[in-house]
Amino acid sequence: MPLQKSPVKEALSYLWWFYTPFRAKSVSDIYELISTNAYSGDGLYLNLGYWKEADNIDDACRAMARLCADQAGLNGDDQLLDVGFGFADQDMYWLEHYSPWRIVGLNITHSQVELARQRVAERGMSDRIELLEASATDMPLENGTFDKVIGLECAFHFNTREQFFAEALRVLKPGGRLVLADVIQMKPMESAWQRMIQRSNWNFFSKKYVVPEANADTQETYVEKLRRTGFVNIQMESIREQVYPQLHHYMATDPAMLKRFHFLARLPYYLALRFDASKVYIAYDYVLVSAEKPA
Fold first, then answer.
1. pLDDT, tens digit, for every residue of 109-132?
2. What average pLDDT does the segment 97-107 reach?
3. What pTM value is reported for the model?
4. Residue 289: C-alpha distances to residues 178, 223, 235 (Å)
5. pLDDT for 181-197, tens place per residue?
6. Residue 225: how many CB atoms within 10 A of its CB?
7. Is 222 exposed, middle or buried (0-12, 13-18, 19+ CB in 10 A)?
8. What is the CATH number of domain 7-292?
9. Where are the domains of the chain?
10. DSSP secondary structure letters along 236-262
C-alpha cells in the first residue's frame, strides 16, 4: 500500500537529496521519501539481504531476518526489542517462525510506524507486537525488560551507535543478548589509490545516508565500544561476501527490482552496475555482531 505524496514535491526531494552536495535531510526525512519503494517484491523489507543460499531479493531479505534471529537464539520465552523495524516485516516473520512471547519495536519514521501498525493489525498480531515511534538512543523503556535486542541494518544511522549500545545494555535483562547486522568501514587497504577510493565512497555514503562521523567504525573500534559499554562474549563476523557481490549481480539481472524505486533514485544504481562489486563496495564491511549483558 504506497503512501500518497505529491509527485513534483517527491521529485524535488530526490533531486535535493541525491544530486546536490547539500546534507539537509535527516534519517527520518530519507525514509519518508523512500516510502514503500522497498528492495523486496513481495514485502516491504529494506535490508540488503543475506545471499548465502538465496537466489532472489525476497528470499535474501528473509534470510537476513532469519540469520539475526538464529544468532540471537530467539525462542518462545523471549521478550524481544527490535530497533529500526522499518515496516515490521521482520517482526511478523519472527512471530510466525520463532514465536517470541512479545515483540516491541522502535522507529523514528512516522509513516513507517503508522503503516507497520496497520499491517500488523491486518495480520492479527497486535496483541504480540507493539510498535513505538521512538529513538533507539533514548528508549522510553524500563531497565532490564528484554531478553534480546536486535537491530537489522540500522545502527549505522544512530546518533550515536555507542549511545545506542548503552541504551541496549540498560533495557536488557542480565544475560540478555544484543544482535546486530550492521554496515561499517572496511579496514584501509594497502594501495594509496584504493584508500582514496575507500574514503570517497565512505564519505558519499555517510553524507547521503546520514551516518554520524562517530559511527565510522572498523571491526576493531566497534568491538572496543561494545566492551567499553559493558558487554561481554562479543562476537563479530564479516558477512560482506554473502551480501554485496550477490546483491550487485541480482540488481544487474533483475530489472524489476530497480523499477520499484523512484526513477530519480535508479540512476546511481545504474551507474554503479557499470563497475565490479569489488570496486563499488570497496569501503564497506557488513558484520553480524552478538554480545551479552553480564549475568
1. 999 999 999 999 999 999 999 999
2. 98
3. 0.95
4. 8, 9, 6
5. 999 999 999 899 999 99
6. 19
7. buried
8. 3.40.50.150
9. 7-292
10. EEE-GGGTHHHHHHHHHH-HHHHHTS-
